Amino acid sequence: MINVTKTYLPDIEKYKKYVDEIYKNSWVTNNGPLVQKLEKRLAEYLGVKNIVLVSNGTVALEIAYRTLGLKGFVVTTPFSFVATTSSLVTNGLLPIFTDIDPGSFNIDPEKIESVITPNTSAILGVHVFGNACEVEKIEQIANKHDLKVIYDAAHAFDVKYKEKSVLNYGDISTLSFHATKLFHTIEGGALIINDDALVQKARYLINFGIQNAESIPELGTNAKMNEFEAAMGLCVLDDIEQIKQSRSVIFKTYQTQLEGLIQFQEQNQNATQNYSYFPIVLKNEDQLLKVQKALNEQQIFPRRYFYPSLDTLSYIEPKQYCSNSRDIASRILCLPIYVDLDENDLNFIIKIVKENI
Ligand SMILES: Cc1ncc(COP(=O)(O)O)c(C=O)c1O
Question: What is the pTM for the complete model shown?
Answer without folding.
Answer: 0.98
